[in-house]
């Protein structure tokens, strides 16, 4: 079934997950070979080979994979847990800041090359850089739009389209260092000389001279889920996909004691108080 799924031109007709979710590849993987998953049991090797050939961002949820492969959802869930224990998979949640809100999203990282717990801990802490996709700049970038609108904010700084194109990379440097549009506008329009003889030259000089420093890098905030109990934990606490409590190396958290049961006399007294209050009303 899986072979038929990848027949034809070799591009899998597999649903993609929502943007930001789905399969995320681990960096620095070895080239694909027929023996990549030979160390795994047959079922796990079959599923790992299937996931390996899926494109980045593909939906690899238990339900979707079970509909594509000849395994039920429970068997698929067990196999994915085994792949995590073997070092090919990590599932967890990552704190994402952007789009005006901060949220936790589910992440699933897959590695054709098996990794040990130490490597996954370093990767999830941000010590192993992720492979960055090829950047694609739209025809009218954020920087171009800001520069093209300068003439409305400060008429003396009106630029041509060609000048906006030439100055856009310098403006992008500001955005890359965390500056927003109001900060760039203040730097370009405050304290203008009178008259401005060359708007493009003035803007270029200010973009270079006032460029803010690079912000200190911040490691990603991530937690990993235990394959046995599903509880989140720190990457360094998960070994072979299991937390310390499920491995038996740490004591399970104590459950709160139930409240003491009421005696029959206390129940009668409480009920009598309610009846008295009702009669008084």
Can you walk through the features of this model?
By secondary structure, this protein is α+β, with helices and mostly antiparallel strands. It is built from twelve helices and five strands. Among the domains are: 2-124, Arc Repressor Mutant, subunit A (Orthogonal Bundle), CATH 1.10.10; 142-209, no CATH class. It has helices at 2-5, 42-53, 62-68, 73-85, 117-124, 142-148, 150-153, 161-176, 181-189, 199-209, 244-247, 264-280, and strands spanning 23-25, 89-98, 101-110, 222-225, 232-233. A five-stranded mixed β-sheet has the order 1-3-2-4-5. A hairpin with a 2-residue loop joins strand 2 and strand 3 (101-110). The radius of gyration is 29 Å and the shape is flat. The termini are far apart.
Strand content: 5-15%
CATH architecture of the domain at 2-124: Orthogonal Bundle
Q: What low-confidence regions span 5 or more consecutive residues with pLDDT below 50?
A: 7-12
Biggest sheet: strand arrangement? 1-3-2-4-5
- N-to-C span: 74 Å
Order of helices and strands: HEHHHEEHHHHHHEEHH
Mean pLDDT: 83
Amount of helix = 25-40%
Radius of gyration: 29 Å
The CATH topology of the domain at 2-124 corresponds to Arc Repressor Mutant, subunit A
Quaternary structure of the protein? single chain
Summarize the main sheet: 5 strands, mixed
Question: Given the structure, what is the number of helices?
Answer: 12
């Amino acid at each position: 079934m899986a072979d038929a799924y990848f027949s034809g031109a070799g591009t899998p007709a597999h649903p993609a997950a929502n943007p930001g979710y789905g399969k995320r590849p681990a960096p620095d993987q070895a080239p694909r070979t027929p023996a990549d998953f030979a160390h795994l049991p047959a079922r796990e090797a079959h599923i790992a080979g299937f996931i390996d050939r899926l494109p980045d961002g593909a939906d690899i949820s238990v339900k979707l994979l079970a509909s594509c492969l000849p395994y039920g959802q429970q068997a698929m869930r067990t196999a994915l847990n085994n792949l995590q224990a073997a070092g090919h998979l990590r599932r967890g949640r990552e704190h994402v800041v952007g789009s005006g809100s901060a949220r936790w999203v589910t992440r699933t990282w897959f590695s054709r090359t098996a990794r040990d717990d130490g490597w996954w801990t370093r990767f999830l802490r941000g010590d192993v850089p992720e492979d960055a996709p090829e950047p694609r700049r739209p025809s009218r970038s954020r920087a171009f739009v800001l520069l093209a609108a300068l003439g409305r904010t400060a008429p003396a700084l009106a630029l041509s389209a060609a000048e906006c194109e030439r100055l856009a990379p310098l403006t992008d440097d500001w955005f890359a260092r965390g500056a927003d549009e109001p900060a760039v506008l203040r730097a370009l329009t405050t304290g203008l000389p009178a008259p401005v003889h060359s708007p493009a030259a003035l803007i270029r000089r200010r973009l270079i001279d006032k460029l803010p420093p690079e912000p200190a890098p911040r490691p990603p905030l991530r937690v990993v889920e235990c394959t046995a109990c599903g509880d989140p934990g720190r990457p360094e606490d998960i070994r072979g996909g299991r937390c310390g409590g499920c491995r038996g190396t740490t004591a399970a958290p104590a459950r709160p004691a139930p409240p003491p049961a009421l005696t029959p006399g206390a129940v009668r007294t409480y009920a009598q108080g309610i009846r008295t209050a009702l009669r008084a009303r």
